[in-house]
Design goal:
heterotrimer; A alpha/beta (about 180); B mainly alpha (about 280); C mainly alpha (about 300); B: mainly alpha; 2 domains; about 75% helix; about 0% strand; C: about 300 residues; mainly alpha; three-stranded antiparallel β-sheet
């Protein structure tokens, strides 16, 4: 990850688009009966300036990294500004405190989306269990595939897209670079 | 009636030109032929006194033809090695080029026979000894043309760096894959530079079969350029062993594997590949 | 850049949409939004209230969105607000980060902001850094309050001393240091309102430390400029005691490097006696608006 110059334009043909990392924390690529990757393929054509100002790359190793070494994992996962966490990673594995501190370490504007993929009758119990995790402003829950699709689309099109706010993307990127530097 | 399309004729002419400018090759052949023809015309009547029995002369000319043929194959293999076409690195393809070269030279030599010897021998069918000498002359003629093309190629452009660029591309990819993120300095940048240099070579090549590799390499480089380091590492094979591994990285790595295989084939000349396979056995 | 990416979803939920209807609405509204933004110049500066205005003016009033809402048969009065471009988007957000929390919560917010302001003033630093320093110091404020019992005419039901009546309402647990999730939640709420500002620090910090610095946000600066003097001279005895303790903690620890501060807290007998993840220090027990204790009332009357 490289620091962006303050005047970076992200426009073709010479400037690289902003590379938006999407980090999945799950033991399966499938969510709500569909592959996260195929959901991403569905939405990318709808993102303004996709491939020109922004490209999105999914990384699926979030859970493995957290299980391996939660402190070291932050160096990698912080590079992604959209985290998709399957709720079981928080409830099933003993990672609640680790997730809480990782989420606390995220710079403002990193979005953490917790995927509740379970029968509706269990939603309240799951949300109660997630309580302290969802305290942060940048954490929200999603309970269906269409809402997940829309949240990802909204985030990539509206929030992480330099076309909609170049300065904030530069700031986010440079914040993460500083954060990672400070940890190494 | 058999008619050759432009593409076909282009393909066949490449056996002789190796993707180089046709006008230039024609110039070389014409210059060479006129020069050799001139030397024959200077001796009148053209004859070659042989101090051997016809049987021995045939044996010597046979051996000479074989040795010269091998030398010609070596030269053609080197010429092929200097191209960006994987096909021209294949022993079989170079053999086809050899046959085309010999056929072309044989025609020229036979025309020479008709022009210079026929008036004396009064028979269009050469004698056995003449055929032996003709075979040597044919191979020599083919060698002389190939040598001029080869020499001209060496002096005219710096195409000898292709191998270095391939080595650089592949070694930077290995280093990017093997090293941890904190140890990586400028490998992605160097890999991109080498890749772009290879791409230019492939795109400017006149030979067929380079387009596919060029397209694949261009797409791959474009994607690589836009990726963050963690993605770039995955693209050269540092794929984590995880059940949530995304297909998109596997596809990008498969594309890299295809490019790497093709480049590796291109990194050995036909003759080196023959030697390697002999050694392998 | 839009940070309120859940706005369309919240608006849909406000309009009582759910299931398929919510999904259709979301897709159409996102399409319209993208299209309208592409048409606009300078859209990159759209955020917060300006974004909400844009939604009301350009997106929610678009025929395609209205058609979808009509099909979904939402309540007439809500549909009317869509038509008129008067969907209360801001309210949907302020409900999440509302500051009408009641006196006790506001006291926590104000005192935290005042702490940050006083820290910067008394130490000459630009911010509180690293971020966990705030956690350590606020813990010390509560701890010191718990060690004194000086408030006049107060009857204690616990052994928390002054902390029973004044101080932060954060329960601290023992992690690597003292840890209070509610303190962070409040810090985030203040950040959301630009009352506090948080940003990454560039200097390397140790692995346990959080590499952020906290200072006053834009609105926080304004608030302090306007009410700062008043906040320095509380009439309330409870707030005054809290404030004095806060200043004492800042003065005592202002020059300490983070490692020394951590060492001091970790070597406290109370910290060492508490098992990991267990409660280290209780929060303030009584609310400011709690009715006066009958016994206390009796004492006061006497």
């Amino acid at each position: 990850m490289e620091e962006y110059a303050e005047d970076r334009k992200f426009e073709p043909p010479d400037k690289k688009p902003h590379n938006e990392g999407i980090c999945l924390f799950s033991d399966s690529k499938s969510c709500y009966g569909d592959d996260i990757e195929s959901i991403l393929k569905e939405i990318t054509p709808k993102i303004s300036g996709y491939e020109e100002t922004i490209v999105a790359d999914p990384h699926g190793e979030g859970l493995d990294l957290m299980l391996d070494d939660p402190v070291e994992a932050e160096k990698t996962i912080l590079k992604s500004s959209l985290w998709l966490i399957h709720y079981k990673c928080i409830t099933k594995y003993d990672l609640k405190d680790n997730f809480r501190s990782a989420i606390n370490a995220t710079p403002p504007r990193t979005q953490v989306c917790i995927l509740i993929d379970a029968p509706e009758t269990e939603h309240d119990d799951i949300e109660a269990e997630l309580d302290e995790i969802t305290d942060s402003k940048n954490v929200y829950t999603v309970k269906s595939k269409p809402v997940l699709r829309n949240s990802m689309r909204q985030y990539l099109d509206m929030s992480a897209n330099p076309k909609r706010g170049r300065e904030e993307v530069i700031k986010w990127n440079n914040n993460v670079c500083d954060l990672i530097d400070a940890r190494s | 009636m058999i008619s050759l399309s432009a593409t076909q004729s282009h393909r066949y002419s490449n056996y002789l030109t190796f993707g180089r400018s046709k006008a230039r090759i024609l110039g070389i052949v014409a210059g060479e032929t006129i020069f050799l023809g001139g030397t024959f015309f200077a001796a009148e009547p053209p004859f070659l006194p042989l101090p051997f029995e016809p049987g021995i002369a045939l044996l010597i000319s046979g051996i000479l033809t074989l040795v010269l043929g091998i030398a010609l194959y070596g030269l053609l293999s080197s010429l092929g090695y200097r191209t960006y076409s994987v096909r021209f690195h294949s022993p079989t393809h170079v053999l086809k080029c050899l046959i085309v070269y010999l056929a072309f030279s044989a025609i020229v030599v036979y025309l020479g026979y008709l022009l210079l010897v026929y008036p004396y021998s009064n028979t269009p069918i050469p004698k056995v000894v003449d055929i032996g000498i003709g075979a040597v002359a044919t191979t020599l003629y083919a060698i002389s043309i190939t040598s001029i093309i080869y020499a001209e190629d060496i002096f005219s452009e710096n195409s000898g760096s292709k191998s270095e660029v391939i080595t650089k591309f592949l070694s930077e990819a290995d280093s990017l894959r093997e090293k941890s993120e904190s140890e990586i300095v400028d490998q992605p940048k160097k890999l991109l530079q080498a890749g772009e240099s290879l791409l230019t070579g492939l795109q400017t090549s006149e030979l067929e079969g380079t387009e596919e590799l060029a397209e694949n390499l261009q797409d791959w480089l474009q994607t690589f350029k836009h990726r963050e380091l963690q993605g770039q590492k995955k693209m050269v094979g540092d794929l984590p062993d995880s059940s949530t591994r995304f297909d998109v990285w596997e596809e990008r790595y498969e594309s890299f594997q295809y490019i790497r295989d093709e480049l590796e084939k291109m990194d050995n000349s036909a003759i080196e590949r023959i030697l390697l396979s002999i050694r392998g056995k | 850049m839009v940070n309120e990416i859940l706005a369309l979803r919240r608006i849909g939920e406000w309009a009582d949409l759910s299931g398929e209807e919510l999904h259709f609405y979301l897709d159409i509204a996102a399409d319209v939004q993208s299209e309208k933004l592409d048409e606009q110049e300078g859209a990159d500066r759209l955020s917060g209230e300006r974004y909400f205005e844009f939604l009301n003016e350009e997106v929610l009033t678009d025929e395609r969105v209205l058609d979808e809402l009509e099909l979904a048969d939402i309540p007439v009065e809500k549909l009317q607000r869509f038509r008129e471009g008067e969907v209360p988007v801001l309210e949907l957000y302020s409900e999440q980060f509302k500051l009408d929390y009641g006196l006790d919560q506001i006291a926590d917010f104000i005192m935290m902001m005042k702490f940050v302001r006083d820290y910067m003033k008394l130490t000459g630093e630009d911010s509180v850094a690293p971020r966990n320093r705030l956690q350590y110091l606020l813990f010390l404020v509560n701890y010191e309050l718990s060690q004194e019992d000086t408030l006049p005419n107060r009857s204690n039901r616990t052994t928390l001393g002054n902390l029973e009546h004044t101080g932060y309402r954060y329960n601290f647990s023992k992690g690597n240091g003292p840890y209070a999730p509610k303190l962070y939640r409040d810090k985030n709420r203040l950040f959301a309102q630009s009352l506090l500002h948080e940003e990454v620090i560039e200097e390397p910090v140790s692995e346990d430390d959080e590499p952020y610095e906290i200072s006053l946000g834009e609105n926080g600066e304004r608030l302090m400029a306007r009410y700062g003097k008043k906040l320095d001279n509380f009439d309330s005895v409870l707030l005054k005691e809290w404030d004095l303790q806060q200043r004492d903690v800042i003065k005592e620890h202002r020059t300490k490097p983070m490692e020394e501060l951590k060492e001091q807290v970790r070597s406290m007998p109370k910290f060492q006696a508490t098992p990991k993840n267990e409660e280290l220090l209780k929060a303030r027990q009584r609310d400011f608006d709690e009715p006066v204790d009958p016994i206390q009332e009796l004492v006061l009357n006497v």
